[in-house]
Amino acid sequence: MFKQRVLGAVVSLSWALGLAVASAAHAGPLDGNSSDVMLQGFHWRSTETSPWWGVIQSKASDIKASGFTMVWLPPSGDSAAKEGYLPRQLYVQSSSYGTDVQLKSAIGALHTYGVKAIGDIVINHRVGTTNWADFTNPTWGASAVVKGDEWTGATGNADTGDGFSAARDLDHTNGTVQSDIKSWLGWMKSSIGYDGWRYDYVKGYAGSYVGSYNSATAPYFSVGELWTDLNLNDVNPHRQKLMDWINATGGNSGAFDFTTKGILQQAAQYGEYGRLKATDGKPQGAIGWWPAKSVTFVDNHDTGPSFPSGGQNHWPFPNGNQEVMQGYAYILTHPGIPCVYWVHYYDWDRATYGDKIKTLIAARKEKGVTSTSAVTIVAAQTNLYAATIAGNSGSLAMKLGSTSWSPGTGWTLVTSGNNWAVWKK
Description:
Blueprint: E1 38-40, H1 52-65, E2 70-72, H2 100-112, E3 116-121, E4 125-126, E5 168-169, H3 175-192, E6 196-199, H4 207-217, E7 222-224, H5 236-248, E8 254-256, H6 258-270, E9 294-297, H7 323-331, E10 337-341, H8 342-347, H9 350-366, E11 374-381, E12 384-391, E13 394-400, E14 412-417, E15 420-424
Parallel strand pairs: 1-2, 1-10, 2-3, 3-6, 6-7, 7-8, 8-9, 9-10
Antiparallel strand pairs: 4-5, 11-12, 12-13, 13-15, 14-15
């Protein structure tokens, strides 16, 4: 669904680095040194290929061979919107993407190849079964909806986050809502087969609830979508907001690194590569502060295009000169947990995009680059960004921009493209 963002808008946030957090109960990729790479397993028009779960099942072997360890699947439940983002009956898992049987088969195929299935969890809001708020399966009353919602019958407490006008905003302070969400997520693991969660629209409710839901369900992986306004001239408040949200979860969830997306696409389009280096010498995005819990990406179903055309395109990575591959050369060599968009990998020209992305993933794994690998930024200036990344079994070097650069002797070129190159040693 569309989340408002204004590129260049000024964000008023008090910020102090304060990275100390309570010890997270979660054990897994988010604890650091993770070699996971995630595939977003859908785009905005995936329901037009029916059943989409059959596509996922047929690609399971190739997904594994491509180096992906996790697949983020679209919202799989009953929904008033075919894309799944207006959930209705939570326990009904037949949808526009296929039946519940087909869903389980797709997840089972992924598991056969050792790939984790990440569910898209939409719990900020919900629609009624036949009207505004007649919630069934599970059944909730008027107290499940926050006061001030568009539905005048709401009797819940105040919202703990931003409002959402297309559905009823749920009151996460309500004990019944909390316990039912925990029970449902547990059922999604045990009965459907999901391994972890991608939380939608987390700016709509307090991050502490994500922490609570994860503590109750122990997902392999968790990531929240906190998409807020970004001021390119002062990015620290933006990435501090990501840190604050991760802290609010008790460190039980990672967050998509929208800061890195914003500055990276600005740099690639206009040659402003100085934006990628912070004053402390580290990467400027969330990966510069808390890489273990930062999920990097180039585009997703909201920001980018679909296939064969159309899509949301609310904030697409520029691609007039194949800048998208500059984006992947960056996120697949740098710390954080990278997420590759389905359209870029499977639908665009294979030789230009998919094959090179696969080669970059293979190089990342060969040299043991992880979510917390150290980065040495060699250059960050107009028309050139260059860095070396230390892995557990070697190193990678990469450059972006039109200015020539080489890491020197002893390095082997992995792959390259228009204004980017990656080497290994």
